[in-house]
Amino acid sequence: MFILKNLLTGQGEEASAHLEDLWKRVPAENPALCWYPSAGDSFCDLLLWARYPLQTIRAPDIFIRTDYDYDFFQSGQLKPGACYQDQGVRAEITRISELRVAPDVQYTVHPDFAIFVDHARPKPCAHLMDVQVKSGTGSILQPVLYFHFENFNWFEEFVLKRKMQISHLFKLAEGCSFGGNNKSVSSLYGFLGLMGCQAILTDQMVHFDWRLFHKYRDRYARHADAAFHLADLGEREMRTGYTMKSFSVERQPGPVSDEVMERALDAITEGSCWRDWETREEANEATNGGNKMAEDLRIRLHMAFEAGLKAEFGELAGEALRNVIVYFPVEGLGESALRTKRDADAQTIEGAIAAPAVDGGTMWLILSNTIASAILADIAGVRRWASVGLDWCGRADGGGWPATEPEWRWILEDPETYSELVQETKRLLGHLR
After folding, report:
1. Domain check: are 269 and 319 in the same one?
2. 3-state SS of 42-75?
3. Residue 249: how many CA atoms within 13 Å on its side-chain side?
4. Taking all residues of the chain, what is their mean pLDDT, rounded to a whole number?
């Protein structure tokens, strides 16, 4: 059975009926899926696949897009009747329903990957859309599944962990840096073979992260027979000014080596001014003085440590301590600097409360001051800032802060234990001596 059937349910009777209609319309086993990461409110994937059908490759049955910025989704035009056009092809949303995502899917929007963390939903969700696509060759109703997920989180949960196959990849202007992303999905190109991809339509912007690629490869594809070759199918025109390149993905025996990856990156960026990725030698030099193996091991241990917190200490404690891992003020963790930072942030927080103008950024400062107090063994400070966090988490403007209420309550129930766990966590990570 197609694994998405076990992971999605309708939000109400009408949405459930809409979802059931989808399962009846697509193949029960291995439907062709097209993934468009950081899609925003764009339907360029539907428009371009309609304009440039690949004669030898099966067309997508379902179009999947991911984007964590729910604030943008709510303020945008993704509603019935919205239309999108490009050079003779027209796409119109005719139906939309909200879906629930199964609770065993681990949902996270981590600041290492996302800039506007406070724009995300507190819990995972998705929308199912019917989109009518009209072109010179006719009209077709296309199903679109819109997951409100950060790209890497979705890819790891659905593709790497559950081995869902993605037959088509569409990448365009994914929004690195100012668009809201800290990491480029080009770092996932190495898994085209593993995910069963047959075709890729992409811009030439590449910001490849060797350390991130090695982390996922070592964890999910170290011994997988997933090497591949990109066969050039030519350029595709878009009125946006981007040059899109299309490739078929040809599976080859053997694992995905760094050499395989470099050849793929060369093919995608050839003739482009967007070539922005480190060579392996540059990556090695930037990693502990060239000791890439030590850095890879550190990353894997970091991931294992983070993943084990919930298993060892429970859901609430684990989630609260996970935030401790990424807390590392620029000034360092010396006592004097830490107190100075906490006092300065306290003034910012108090000003926001007085306005009142408490938003996601303010909530991060409140969390930061809670952690700082725990590191300083200031139990009164822990109680103070956790109380403020509890008071405002349900009222902050933007983001998923209402869902953090149980964590604030857990901290307040036993601030001494929380402080001890925070300090030991930082010692284990080498942030405290």
Report:
1. no
2. CCHHHHHHHHCCCCCCCCCCEEEEECCCHHHHHH
3. 28
4. 82
